[in-house]
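Q: My labmate handed me this sequence with no annotations at all. I'd like to see what the chain might look like in three dimensions before we decide whether it's worth expressing. Could you predict it?
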Amino acid sequence: MNRRDSGSGTIVDPAVRAELLVNQHPSDWRNPARAERYGLVVIGAGPAGLAAATHAAASGVRVALVERDLLGGDGLNYGSVPSKALIRSARAYADMRVAHRYGASVPAGIEVDFHAAMQRVLEVRARLSRITSPRILREAGVDLFFGHAEFRAPDRLELEGEPLWFDKALIATGAEPDVPDIPGLEEVGYFNNETIFGIGELPERLLVIGGGPLGCELAQTLRRFGSRVVIVQHVPLFLPHEERDAAQILSVAFARDGIEVRLNTEVTALRRVNGEIHADLRSDDYISEITTDAVVVGTGRRPRIHDLGLDAAGVQHDPVRGVHTDDYLCTTNPMVYAAGDICMEHRYVSVATTTGRMAVANALHEGRQRLSELVIPWCTYTDPEIAHVGLYVRQAMRRDIQVSTVTVPLHAVDRAVLDSDDIGFIKLHVADGSDRILGATIVSRDAGEIISQVTQAIVAGLGLRTLSQVIHPYPTQSSAIGEAARTWCKQHPETK
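A: Here is what I predict for the chain of 496 residues:
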């Protein structure tokens, strides 16, 4: 079996690596005896699959969980957990370099210990892997199988040459890196989110291809460790789905950190010359060349649908959208459901776990939980962070919804001033004629934390008049939510 070990290139404590492997895929694992038929078979033990399997088992259903590689999926191994752990270490170095902002002396001769940071990533992964280990799953009543499962019929899978019969199945195989077709890319070699956390040495020069959330996070993080970073984005802006003023603030932050940004630029070819990687770039009619020591591809991810035998199961799918589901997460086969990145436009751990539980409720317990009713927040974990929930103004306009917007800049928030982190804003979009919140964008070092308050208000149907009455501890950045609500109430005294 080809296992992807995201710590393979780093110098790590052998005990940490051993614990991680025991919790993810023990070398001496033996699959359990198969039941004659399972109430639910889950394919993929990432966030969606784990949530679904444990939720179903807790309700008394006989559950089989099949994983071809490592327990935890992208979230634990190649995504949220390792990236955010590394981002936190990089921020510590960034804070040291601006200690004067806080009345402290900048340490002399700051030396970056990249190996120590990577060791911490492995330690964090090992710690978090304990809660979804094979032992924990067995105690929860889940039959865990390692191997490759493929549909052979609408109600049958084949695992290592033997059948797995089911009443219901859930596909939760996640997503994989979407690698662009650039001449020479495979020959020179590259990193992506599945391999970057196994990098052995920090490259002196780094080319990041892609200006979406993944590319932006990796570019800033590795720059803060000391790499000279060039980020190339093929369209005239990065984070193209976010509001322009939010992306502009991040652009300023990138300039502050010393990241070179090439927008409206394509990498047309790559080649290795005397140990260096040469990249040909094209921006309109302007041709240029840069040299680098490593390449990171951060151009997004695509559904992992190959080798599943979906046609044999009667499950409709395509390479872009992934597995097709209805509003209840049921596929075109009424016995098969899907959850997480394999079928979702929003590919986040929080969405994967939520849809995993939702699919179990709908498939096994006659639930009627609708995908369209979810309120989904997200966050890009750059510095500052950019978080969003609900509608953007452009989306509301396409739906002929009239919107008013209230914005509170962070320099008007006392806690942001006290922390010397006052670059950013909190912006709320409200339906005209009411105080109903349609959406929000927050740019702040703690945007991912603050956005939850707005998300809760939208889910609970709380309008700005109610939020204006909420008392926040002083001083906190989240108090800006209340300030925005009070500002809106003053501007719209007659609106209920």
